[in-house]
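Quick one, T. Sequence first:
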Amino acid sequence: MEKTIRFFAGLDLLVTGLFVLPLTARPVLDLIFWLHDRLIAPEAAPEIGGAAMAFINIMGVIGVIWALARLKMPLAPLARLDGAGRLAVAALLLWHIAGGLSPVFGLFAVTELAGALFQLRPGFTGSRTA
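Structure tokens:
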């Protein structure tokens, strides 16, 4: 299902692309903390130091490169790797939420689980194989 691979790659490109630069990552993080403040409980947003922002930006670059690879080559093996990676990311998010991370990050876990469900479902092979 080339369309499915491209859909999740496009979604990843959009979301992770926002984390590539500090000038765009900071407003996204502010939005997440604003949602927490409005939906969960008023709380001061945590300080994001230079080292944390560097890793956020690096994650954004890696996410963009991975999304571009899947957009250019919507192959079944890449979809399976992506699905497995999404399960790992969702598990990490849930673990951190259980440890005190804002439940707002559960929205990211839901999208990760959806991507894994679609790309790891039985019979899903994509349109081409490597």
